[in-house]
Structures are given as C-alpha cells and as structure tokens.
Specification:
The chain has helices at 57-60, 62-77, 102-118, 124-139, 145-152, 191-204, 206-229, 232-248, 254-265, 289-300; strands at 2-13, 24-39, 45-49, 86-92, 155-159, 168-171, 178-184, 270-274, 281-286, 305-311. The protein has 312 residues and is of the alpha+beta class. It has 2 domains: 2-171, Ribosomal Protein S5, domain 2, CATH 3.30.230; 178-311, GHMP kinase, C-terminal domain (Alpha-Beta Plaits, 2-Layer Sandwich). A hairpin with an 8-residue loop joins strand 5 (155-159) and strand 6. Helix 3 packs across helix 4, helix 4 crosses helix 5 and helix 7 (206-229) runs antiparallel to helix 8 (232-248). The chain is globular.
C-alpha cells in the first residue's frame, strides 16, 4: 500500500492580502492529512474520506475533492484510472475546517501516494505543483501559500508573483519557538467566496482598500523581523493589528472575533483569524505552555475544537 502526507498550515500574517501580491508569513504545523492508496477493482479514482472534520465539511467539499484529482492528473500525473483504478483512504490527525489548509493537505497527501504507487518519482517541486493545481478546485485562484506549507512544512515568508513567474519563498529562522493554539469556529466556509468578496469590495473602494493593503504589507515586514529576533510580544501586537485589518475588509466573523477576545482574556500575546475567514479557524500566540493550556481549556469548555502546536 502506498502512502503520502500533507501538513496543515497556519497563516500568521497576510492572508487575503497575499492573493493580491502582498507578502504573507505562514507555517506548516505538525498535524497532517494522510492518504493511503491501493489498487481497486472498479474503474476510477475512489476516495474514502475518514478525516476528522467539522460538521458538514466532508459533504460540502465532495465535488471539489473530485475536481482536485482531475486537475492534478491533467497537470502532472497523466494517468488513466479507468485502466488502472485505485482507492484512496484519507485520514490523519489534522482536524479539517476552513483556515487550516485542509484542502491543500489532502491534495499533497494524495499526490505523494499516487507518485509512490505508480513509480512517478515526483520531486517536492512537482508535489507542490500538484497541491497548487488541486487547491484550485477549492479556492479558485489560490495564492500558493497553502500548498507550499503543506509540502515543505516550516515557517516561510511568501509573496505571489502576479506576472505568473516563480513565487518568492524565503525560509524564516525563528529567534525562539512560538507556542500557539488554533481554535475552530465549527463554521465551514468556501475560501473562493471570501476571496471573491474582497476582490469586489476592492474594485468598489480602491483607495481605501489600497491603504489597508499597504498597512498589511508593513505589518508582515515588521513581523518578519520580530520572528527572526524571537520578540513574542511584538509578534502578538502585530497579530492584533492584522486582525483589525481583516475585520475592515469584511472577512472576519462574530465567532472569530469572540474567540480572539476569549484568548486575549486568557493571556494570549495576540490573536487573529487565520485563513479564508468568515468562519474556520483563529490563531493565538502565547509566552509559555501554561498560558497555552489555560486558553485552550477556556475554549474547549465552550465546546470549540482546539489544536495545540509549537512553531520552530
């Protein structure tokens, strides 16, 4: 049986703005989706989805998942699954909800499993391309940051090349590890819809949104320096600022704002929504493991799913 994995991700700074050519900072996390592939008797590419997920998530994305396989096959694999049918079971410990890179993680995991099973010997670069192509079924025009984190892991500074050339990707060495939690609102959203909404509002208010986008770029550049120096307090302050900008462009949600406030009340240095928004996940950063646990338990006491993680 062939197998592959794809890491979940957290965007620390710059989501949504990254789609429009502004920089972003993101990291792979230790939670991942695993794909196990074996030959099948019936023609086609069958997916059995056993991932832990928010209510309605798996059903909502069934068609996108099927389309993602078609896109990856057309772009990279070039395989005939009618003649060589397979069955893929998706699992792992990544709790799937909007904002944690679950779609890209599933694409990368399946690409690795397909490569192993069929002896394609795909390079990491090709696996990353599969993740990007597959994620188009979910996000329309993804920036490329999710699949990059899913493929390579680690902390990266990322800027999309708006002219179609290679994206700018730079590894960031943390001054010291960061303790974080990611909390799911339980609301499943479509990143494509959130991105389209921002694009439409940008057209209607180009001057106001232009200023907001420039502020977002300044925050990312300050955060890059703060991460390198290990200045957790400044990282937290910048996350708070980033969240306010995301509220201004209309991609937050009352549950996201509530959870951000709850984590701040429980000793978070900073907190913000992460990913596409309008639901999905938020992320909070802390100065110590004990603070992480207090905030995590406060969120869990109210019924929210929590991922505890360390970056670096």
């Amino acid at each position: 049986m062939a197998a592959g994995h794809g890491f979940g991700k957290v965007i620390l700074f710059g989501e949504h703005f990254v789609v429009h050519g502004k920089p972003s900072i993101a990291s792979g996390i230790s939670r991942k989706t695993v794909a196990e592939l074996k030959p099948a008797k019936k023609p086609g590419f069958r997916i059995i989805d056993k991932r832990p997920a928010a209510e309605g998530y798996i059903k909502k994305y069934e068609e996108s998942q099927r389309k993602s396989v078609e896109l990856m096959n057309k772009a990279v694999w070039h395989l005939d699954f009618e003649k060589h049918p397979v069955e893929v079971t998706l699992g792992g410990d990544l709790y799937c909800a909007s904002g944690v890179g679950a779609s890209a993680a599933s694409c990368v995991a399946m690409a690795r499993a397909v490569s192993e099973h069929f002896g394609l010997e795909l390079t990491a670069e090709k696996i990353n391309l599969c993740g990007l192509e597959g994620d188009k079924a979910y996000a329309g025009t993804p920036s490329g940051i999710d699949n990059t984190c899913s493929t390579y892991g680690g902390l990266i500074y990322f800027r999309k090349n708006m002219q179609g050339g290679p994206n700018a990707i730079e590894r960031i060495q943390l001054g010291k590890p960061l303790d974080i939690i990611m909390v799911s609102t339980g609301i499943t959203t479509r990143t494509e819809e959130a991105v389209a909404g921002v694009r439409e509002r940008l057209k209607q208010n180009p001057e106001d949104y232009g200023r907001i986008f420039d502020e977002a770029e300044q925050i990312v550049n300050k955060a890059k320096d703060a991460l390198a120096k290990g200045n957790a307090e400044q990282i937290g302050r910048l996350m708070d600022e980033n969240h306010r900008l995301l509220q201004r462009i209309g991609v937050s949600h009352e549950k996201l704002d509530y959870l951000v406030g709850l984590c701040r009340k429980n000793h978070a240095l900073g907190a913000k929504m992460t990913g596409g928004g309008m639901g999905g996940y938020m992320v909070a950063v802390f100065s110590c493991p004990n603070c992480v646990e207090k905030a995590a338990k406060a969120c869990e006491a109210e019924g929210y799913k929590v991922i505890r993680a360390r970056i670096g």
